[in-house]
Amino acid sequence: MWKNYFGPKARIIGIDINTDCKKFEDDQIEIYIGSQEDKNFWRDFKTKVPQVDILLDDGGHTMRQQIITFEEMFEHISNEGIYLCEDCHTSYWSAYDGGYKRKNTFIEYSKNFIDNINAWYSNSKKLQVSESTKLMYGLHYYDSVIVIEKKVQGRFQRL
User: Fold this and answer.
1) Residue 36 CB partners (closer than 8 Å, separation 6+)
2) pLDDT tens-place string over residues 31-90
3) What is the DSSP letter of 126?
4) Rounded to two decimals, what is the model's pTM?
5) I want to staple 60 with a disulfide (CB 3.0 to 4.6 A). Which of 6, 65, 93, 103 is the partner?
6) Is 102 exposed, middle or buried (0-12, 13-18, 19+ CB in 10 A)?
């Protein structure tokens, strides 16, 4: 599907815990085997794969998997790249460690991005400019999907 969508020049990299997925490799598709909640896997992966333009997290959908994937991979997205996390509805499902307003769901975790993006303007010592402030350009919530636009930001002047 992604080959058809992005065309013959796209390099598509997939990650799965199932070794049988290697059978889908071809001249445009590479498959790495590992767990998305394994920080060591991600660190090793980043040594083998250059920065990516688009990252689509369509993994196991647990809160730990979604948060670790974001924390390990957002910095590895190219400037002006896009990070998408889909199936965010699992943030509301107890079977995935979610629940409405439950601490540490990906939805609740991502709500902090709003403050991070706007930290330039804060007078509070509790909200400081961070790497997220410098790298996040846009944040979009859709039905079960969060899209984060990455673009290196400079300090803005206060009005």
Assistant:
1) 15, 42, 57, 59, 60, 65, 68, 69
2) 999 999 999 999 999 999 999 999 999 998 999 999 999 999 999 999 999 999 999 999
3) T
4) 0.91
5) 65
6) middle
Q: Where are the alpha helices (DSSP H) in the chain?
A: 2-6, 39-48, 63-73, 106-117, 131-135
What architecture (CATH level 2) is domain 35-150?
Answer: 3-Layer(aba) Sandwich (3.40)
Digit-coded pLDDT (tens) for 96-107: 999 999 999 999
Q: How far apart are CA 42 and CA 48, in angstroms?
A: 10
Q: What is the pLDDT of residue 159?
A: 47
Tokens of 146: 């969060």
